[in-house]
Amino acid sequence: xxxxxxxxxxxxxxxCSPRENGVNASLAKDFKKKSPLDSVTIIMLSQKNxxxxxxxxxxxxxxxxxxxxxxxxxxxxxxxHEAIIFFCPVYKGSVPSKVRAFIxxxxxxxxxxxxxxxxxxxIVVTGKVEGVGKLTVADDLMHFATSLGFIIVPPxxxxxxxxxxxLMRYDEIIASLSHLVERIKFWAK
Length: 189
Description:
189 residues; Rossmann fold; 39% helix
């Protein structure tokens, strides 16, 4: 399905794991491989330098951040895509530190929420079967998305990581991602 721009929506898959070859990285790469869409870009946060916000206030007056790191490149990529899917693990009951730093730094974007009002967010959260924090991670990502005006498209996908590091019901998660893509195509019209 083509959108009003005459093409399929572009999806940015943000792998939030600090592990470059972990479950979330594999899931994001498999998603890109199996996606029916032409344009899926993956950003690996593990390869990015994102400093935490130091609440200096510089962004409030200048709409820029004084840090010279990869944050602006990630925002530029978000701006170039109609949809973003976060592939995020649970770390100590919450999001990994680079995700937290990224969310903190988005204060700079609050004045431009109209840019994001038509953008779509999908969320995939993985964590240990017996672990806690999956809902907290989903909530953190939903709060980030809604505070900027993104449209959150269900389903929010939860994956359970087994003790051996494998993802439980992997095929069902891939099927859910296919369903998510169909919803993204619908909303990106």
